[in-house]
Write a structure and sequence with these properties.
The protein is of the alpha/beta class. It has two domains: 11-147, Rossmann fold (3-Layer(aba) Sandwich); 180-423 and 437-480, Dihydrodipicolinate Reductase, domain 2 (2-Layer Sandwich), CATH 3.30.360.10. Helices cover 34% and strands 21% of the residues. It has 16 helices and 17 strands. It has helices at residues 21-36, 56-70, 78-85, 101-107, 125-134, 154-165, 183-193, 224-227, 231-249, 258-271, 300-304, 405-408, 410-413, 419-429, 438-458, 473-480, and strands spanning 11-16, 45-50, 88-92, 113-118, 142-147, 173-176, 207-215, 280-285, 288-289, 296-297, 314-320, 330-336, 343-350, 369-375, 379-387, 396-404, 463-465. A nine-stranded mixed beta sheet has the order 16-15-14-13-7-12-11-8-17, with helices on both faces. The chain has a six-stranded parallel beta sheet with strand order 3-2-1-4-5-6, sandwiched between helices.
């Protein structure tokens, strides 16, 4: 199967913070891959903007280095790299002052989409928006892309939305969450709404529970001081895991249209019940020896450089969606640093048949489980019961019906674009389906804030867990007391 590449119209894209880590690792290499695929026409222009005083040739050298490091050898074609660099430019700008803004405005051309990627700290969003407006770059075809965090609570999210709204309409603001750009996440909607097979069963009558897991093997490392002001709840649950929950629980939209999809996601967030303190487990990872090496991996306390830290590097919780479709079906969410394996998945566990006609030991029975793997090895897996081959009666065994995108789509289809590639192209097209709307962000914080306020008021300290484990023991009990168990992290 060969994937279709549909070119976009010529555009001008300005990347603020173009010398930063995100631009170097993701944005610029992703844009080159889209150029290599033939999706970006040569008439387009990509302008890097940052405080660093350098000329365009120096910036192009940085872009070349980023391509060499973060793009696979098969796509590092010298002629294509040179052609891509020919559309790259640079301007040194002062986000808090006026230096460089007139020069930047002169580089943009009339009659095309102007996109501005805010790959900078949220504290600079307002200043950038104000200067784009002052220098007449905030026209009807202008679009701004803002990275999370979209505030750190409801009050700051409202203030940020209000600041951006002073200079841009809501349809011009693209709040990017790279999880929504993953191929498997979008396929979740296709599986639900393009097939009659699952949707009739997609409710509390047939689904026992849902597990959403985002596990990382790395610690907070060099961003410890930042992370300590955030924690897993703000950094992951309020946005990434919340979005995944919405896509699972939402009602079918009337059309695959940006506002129709986001309207249904907003309904899910507003239907989330408050979470009891007994349904939340928080943890911090401990130090661990690095295999045969004598140098240990530091624990969270060392990484955060805060001996008194009560910030969680792990969180597990049980949530309920209070509506007719999901009444009584729990959603278990967990995410953490320094865990056993790097994996992100959604597991929908169906209920057992109401009556078994087979003489099967009840303890050996296995439920049907639909697993959507986001990383690694994107794909889907449906576990079903079949007869075990061989004579000797009707013995049942659970087997997976496995679809790896790499295997199912063949060599060409397996070359799945990175989430940032897809989302940036959606910005150019003006498609906001996979971006968060302002009221959606605020609703998510309205649910999250009381949870955080509760443990802060109680002075709760996260439980310790071993690096390389599945998290705190208390998280196992969260499931065990409901007669369920977490899926193995692997």
């Amino acid at each position: 199967m060969v994937s279709r590449v549909i070119p976009v119209d010529p555009f001008d894209l300005v990347i603020f913070g173009a010398t930063g880590d995100l631009a170097t690792r993701k944005i610029l290499p992703g844009l080159y891959r889209r150029f290599f695929a033939g999706q970006i026409p040569e008439g387009s222009k990509i302008v890097g903007a940052a405080r660093t005083a350098q000329d365009s040739d120096a910036f192009r050298a940085q872009v070349r280095a980023a391509i060499e490091e973060f793009v696979g050898a098969a796509k590092r074609d010298p002629a294509q790299i040179e052609a891509f660099l020919s559309i790259v430019d640079y301007v040194a700008v002062d986000a808090m002052g006026d230096d460089g803004w007139a020069a930047l405005a002169q580089k943009l051309r009339d009659g095309r989409v102007h996109a501005f990627y805010f790959s900078v700290a949220p504290s600079l969003f307002g200043a950038l928006a104000e200067r784009l407006h002052s220098y007449k770059m905030a026209g009807p075809e202008a679009r701004i892309v803002v990275e999370k965090p979209f505030g750190r609570d409801l009050a700051s999210a409202r203030a940020l939305n209000a600041t951006l709204a002073e200079h841009f309409d809501e349809h011009q603001i693209y709040r990017i969450d790279h999880y929504l750009g993953k191929e498997t996440v979008q396929n979740l909607m296709a599986v639900r709404f393009a097939n009659i097979l699952f949707e009739p069963l997609w409710n509390s009558q047939y689904i026992d529970h849902v597990q959403i897991t985002v596990a990382e093997t790395v610690g907070v490392g060099g961003r410890g001081s930042y992370y300590d002001k955030s924690g897993a709840m703000r950094d992951m649950v309020q946005n990434h895991l919340m979005q995944l929950l919405c896509l699972i629980a939402m009602e079918p939209p009337y059309h695959f249209d940006p506002d129709a999809v986001r309207d249904e996601k907003l309904k899910v967030i507003r239907a989330l019940q408050p979470v009891n303190s007994s349904d939340i487990v928080r943890g911090q990872y401990l130090a661990q020896a690095r295999g045969d090496c004598d140098t240990p991996l530091p624990g969270y306390i060392e990484d955060s450089e805060n001996p008194q830290s009560k910030t969680e590097s792990y969180i597990a919780l049980k949530a309920h969606v209070a509506n007719w479709r999901w009444q009584g079906t729990p959603f278990y969410l967990r995410t953490g640093k320094r865990l056993r394996a790097r994996t992100s998945e959604i597991a929908i566990t169906f209920k057992q048949p109401p009556h078994s006609i087979f003489d099967e030991n009840e303890s050996e029975w296995r439920e049907n489980v639909l697993v959507i793997r986001l990383q690694p090895n994107e794909g889907m897996n449906l576990k079903v019961m079949i007869k075990e081959p061989g004579p000797g009666g009707m013995r049942l065994v659970q087997v997976p019906l496995d679809m790896s995108f790499a295997e199912a789509l063949g060599e060409d289809g397996a070359d799945i674009p990175d989430a940032y590639e897809r989302l940036i192209m959606d910005v150019i097209r003006g498609n906001q389906t996979l971006f968060m709307r302002g009221d959606e962000v605020e609703a998510a914080w309205a649910w999250t804030d009381p949870i955080i306020a509760g443990w802060e008021a109680r002075g709760d300290k996260p439980a310790s867990y071993d690096s390389g484990s599945s998290g705190p023991e208390d998280a196992l009990m969260l499931m065990h007391r409901d007669g369920r168990r977490w899926r193995e992290i692997r």
